[in-house]
Design brief:
By secondary structure, the chain is of the alpha/beta class. The chain has a single domain, classed as 3-Layer(aba) Sandwich (Rossmann fold), CATH 3.40.50.150. Helix content is about 45%, strand content about 25%. The protein has a seven-stranded mixed sheet with strand order 5-4-3-6-7-9-8, with helices on both faces. A two-stranded antiparallel sheet has the order 1-2. It is globular and about 45 Å long. The relative contact order is 0.14.
Length: about 260
């Protein structure tokens, strides 16, 4: 069970890193350490952990973006570039995709994968902090963030920044692990806290990082909470679609 993060005794200057309480100023560096550690094996671990389902979830996200040739798209916390690669093919020569991540190791891995896929000319890489985006207001037609929001310390601040840099009429897409249905929750918990760290030990030789990733999923806002956070950030026509019995949810909203 996850600890109660709403405890009145919790200091205001701490946040959660998995199930641990850590100083707010330390979380970004701790998360960076996790992804520095797993970057080289991130893609193969994703395939193993999800049984390849992450590819279907990401394809669903790209389809629901309704991106068009000429669009300018921000793939935030884009890591190894799965979404950026597909968006680059859609927006074409007249469009642009910004693959952005706070972690340099993940971006470098993403750059190599894009080159190997023959993607060049309409993708720019940017090392950015999602809580303080270095882009002008009303820049992007679409913003995607896949499996990255839960690692951000100030999620409300990041959502506000996404709203700021999105063009009026633009769409945000947030793909993230969420609250699964009660029917599968026991099996899901067993997998997350027993199998996942074992895979981390055997494949990535880093069980601690995958223990954190399992815990971070439990600490992330559930579907309805995240929906309310998006509305508070100014997004309208917000909705979510549960995927794989709610293990993952795709939240979408618009800037009007």
């Amino acid at each position: 069970m996850a600890p109660n993060t709403d405890s009145p005794d919790k200091p205001d200057d701490t946040t959660h890193f998995g199930y641990k309480d850590v100083p707010v100023d330390d979380k970004a560096d701790l998360v960076k350490g996790v992804f520095d550690s797993v970057a080289s094996r991130y893609d193969i671990m994703n395939d193993l952990m999800s049984g390849g389902m992450h590819r279907l979830w990401k394809r669903y996200t790209v389809q629901h973006a309704n991106a068009r040739p000429g669009h300018v798209i921000l793939d935030l916390a884009g890591g190894t570039g799965d979404l950026a690669r597909e968006f680059a093919r859609i927006v074409g020569e007249r469009g642009q995709v910004v693959l952005a991540d706070i972690n340099a190791a993940m971006l470098e891995h993403g750059r190599r994968r894009l080159v190997d896929a023959g993607i060049a000319g309409n993708v720019e890489l940017a090392q950015v902090d999602a809580e303080a985006l270095p882009f002008a207001d009303n820049t992007f037609d679409r913003i995607s963030i896949a499996f990255g929001l839960r690692n951000i310390t100030d999620k409300d601040g990041a959502l506000a920044e996404m709203h700021r840099v999105l063009k009026p009429g633009g769409k945000v897409l947030i793909l993230e692990f969420s609250q699964p249905s009660s029917a599968i929750k026991p099996a899901y918990d067993l997998y997350s806290f027993k199998v996942l760290p074992l895979l981390g030990r055997l494949i990535a030789r880093d069980p601690e990082s995958y223990q954190y990733l399992a815990e971070s999923i439990r600490m992330h806002p559930d579907q309805e909470t995240l929906l309310g956070m998006m509305q508070d950030a100014g997004f309208e026509r917000c909705r979510y679609n549960n995927l794989t019995a709610g293990i993952v949810a795709l939240h979408t909203g618009y800037k009007i």
